[in-house]
Design goal:
By secondary structure, the protein is α/β, with parallel strands linked by helices. It has three domains: 2-158 and 404-485, FAD/NAD(P)-binding domain (3-Layer(bba) Sandwich), CATH 3.50.50.60; 172-227 and 348-397, FAD/NAD(P)-binding domain (3-Layer(bba) Sandwich), CATH 3.50.50.60; 243-345, no CATH class. The protein is built from 16 helices and 17 strands. The chain has helices at residues 11-23, 72-79, 94-114, 179-182, 199-210, 243-253, 258-271, 276-283, 289-302, 307-325, 328-336, 338-345, 350-362, 411-419, 459-462, 468-485, and strands at residues 2-7, 30-35, 118-122, 128-132, 135-139, 144-148, 150-153, 172-173, 192-195, 217-220, 365-368, 373-376, 382-385, 390-392, 394-397, 439-441, 447-453. It has a six-stranded mixed beta sheet with strand order 3-2-1-7-17-16, covered by helices on one side. It is globular. The protein binds flavin-adenine dinucleotide. Flavin-adenine dinucleotide binds at residues 7-13, 35-38, 40, 44-46, 56-58, 63, 125-126, 154-157, 199-200, 203, 407, 409-410, 413, 455-456, 466-468, 471. Residues 5-157 form the FAD-dependent urate hydroxylase HpyO/Asp monooxygenase CreE-like FAD/NAD(P)-binding domain.
Length: 493
């Protein structure tokens, strides 16, 4: 039987398994082996069991794990008594999304087994991959498995990052998830510094708040920005920010420039009648973070302007392809705007924004940019040297590395593949992949039809590698490409 290995068993792998059950298993039986050493099979780090205060940042209607059925997630919520959390005006708890992912993968596996396929889950870390006579062998510390015809890498992102080298300091919490374990020993009156001011940092604030924390909390990051607040969905059929238009412009101009993408974005904004000047103003806005949060919350509740929701939809629809096709020089231009883009493309839910705002107003919560250093004090606690310096008892890491890194658990595996020329490092991070199929591109520049990657490992190639809609869409492309390799479908161009 055709043998497929999926390495990593988080949400990306759940999407791949569901896509294989839909695209391949009804046609031909296959053997699938999923390697996942951690306790959060299918849920990964983000959707693991945790407190009710840990909210998804995206409404359920945008989190279907299967690309061919956008209603799949919403339907599951209704069928499982959670219909009130499936509306577009609310967001579910992340552990509930985790249950949905688990159930989706388990149902896919049951369907595959019913159709004659086998699925095995191995709780092992893969430390190397070897190719021998056209087949792959996975290796761990004292085991070897194979042979595999196909391998899909779903290795995830670096879980947490120790910017200030505090890992051996008492009072430092290196990993915020699950919050219900990470925060258990934080004294109620302690002053807490959180490294970062993005979505993970907001989760930590919500976790402390839910535990009745009474001490002061400082969010500290390099830029001192908070994510924007999610506005209502736009309900607009994209006409310009589509893969087809990106490909047409690329063909017509002999390449794609940043200015081409800006023109497509402007055309899309004009099509929905929004003000381009308003969007442009967001890129040059220097309003302090808390005032901006208040403005963003008002905008989310009262302003029906579809500008950012449309651009966010466009990012999901064609952001990966647009980034892929840009020249390196234009990629650097986008990078200069990366923080602003991410602020608006990955907004927080209004419910969290309202709670944050109350905490800022009460004086319990503060935010500072320009963090230069965080040093342990000889008497205990930490000095935060920043625009607004602080002395805190506890520091919690909630930040990502400035430059994407391969997660520690995956480094030996990726290094082994690199040493054999099976993968090549992408100059912007992660590894090189083919744009349409996500096939790994070898050192010799050949896209290998037997090796695919999904998720953060492709961040240099695609830039936008996170979020269920992006993962589900790419997982489907990968399953279709594997099906095509097996002769089940005509190959896509
Ligand atoms: C704070 C935060 C909030 C988010 N909120 C949302 C949201 O509300 N909605 C949304 O759609 N998206 C959200 N996202 C993004 C989304 O969750 C991620 O895109 C997704 O969780 C990534 O899943 P993954 O499977 O690629 O990675 P992971 O969940 O990291 O899984 C990778 C798995 O690979 C395994 N692994 C690694 N190396 C090896 C190896 N060598 N051998 C075997 N196994 C290995 C690991 O054990 C791990 O379980 C959020 C992200 C963050 C950080």
């Amino acid at each position: 039987m055709f043998e497929i290995a999926i390495i990593g068993g988080g949400p990306s792998a759940a999407c791949v398994v569901a896509a294989m059950a839909y695209r391949i298993a009804p046609e031909i039986p296959i053997n699938v082996t999923v390697f996942e050493p951690g306790p959060n099979l299918w849920r990964g780090r983000v959707f693991q069991p945790d407190g009710d205060e840990v909210l998804a940042n995206v409404p359920m209607e945008d989190m279907s794990a299967v690309a061919w059925d956008p209603e799949h997630g919403v339907r599951w919520f209704h069928e499982n008594g959670l219909g009130d959390l499936a509306a577009d005006t609310t967001v579910p708890r992340r552990h509930q999304v985790g249950r949905y992912l688990e159930d989706t993968a388990e149902q896919a596996i049951a369907a595959m087994r019913a159709a004659g396929s086998n699925v095995e889950i191995r709780t092992s870390t893969v430390t190397s991959l070897e190719m021998d006579e056209g087949k792959f062998w996975t290796h761990g510390d004292d085991w070897k498995a194979g042979s595999f015809d196909q391998v899909v890498l779903c290795l995830g992102a670096t879980p947490s990052y120790d910017h200030y080298k505090l890992s051996s300091s008492a009072g430092y919490i290196a990993d915020a998830y699950p919050l219900r374990e990470a925060l258990i020993d934080v004294p109620e009156q302690a002053s807490v510094g959180i490294v970062g001011s993005g979505l993970t940092a907001i989760d930590v604030v919500m976790g402390l708040r839910a535990r009745g924390h009474r001490g002061p909390i400082t969010l500290g990051s390099r830029n001192g920005h908070l994510p924007s607040v999610r506005q209502r969905p736009a309900r607009h059929k994209l006409q310009h920010l589509t893969v087809r238009r990106i490909e047409e412009v690329t063909a017509a101009n002999g390449g794609l420039s940043f200015d081409d993408v800006v023109e497509l974005a402007k055309a899309e904004l004009v099509a929905v009648g929004t003000s381009i000047a308003k969007i442009a103003a967001d890129f040059s806005c220097t309003t302090p973070a808390v005032t901006r949060l208040r403005n963003d919350l008002v905008r989310a509740m009262e302003d029906r302007d579809p500008g950012w929701p449309v651009l966010r939809d466009g990012m999901v629809a064609c952001g990966q392809d647009a980034w892929y096709l840009l020249s390196d020089a234009d990629k650097m231009r986008v990078r200069a705007w990366h923080q602003t883009l991410m602020r608006h493309c990955c907004p927080m839910p209004p419910a969290n924004a309202a709670l944050l705002l109350n905490m800022f107003h009460s004086g319990q919560l503060a935010i500072t940019g320009g963090v230069r250093s965080i040093l342990p004090r000889s008497t205990g606690g930490f000095d935060i040297d920043a625009e607004r310096p602080a002395v805190v008892d506890v520091v919690i890491s909630a930040s990502t590395p400035a430059k994407h890194e391969i997660p520690p658990a995956a480094r030996p595996l990726v290094a082994s593949m690199e040493s054999q020329g099976l993968v090549a490092a992408h100059p912007f991070g992660g590894v090189r992949v083919d744009r349409i199929t996500s096939r790994l591109v070898s050192r010799r520049g050949v896209a290998d039809s037997k090796l695919h990657a999904l998720g953060d490992l492709t961040n240099g190639a695609y830039l936008f590698t996170f979020g269920m809609p992006v993962l589900a869409a790419r997982a489907d492309c990968i399953a279709m490409d594997i099906a095509a390799t097996m002769g089940l479908f005509p190959k896509r161009s």
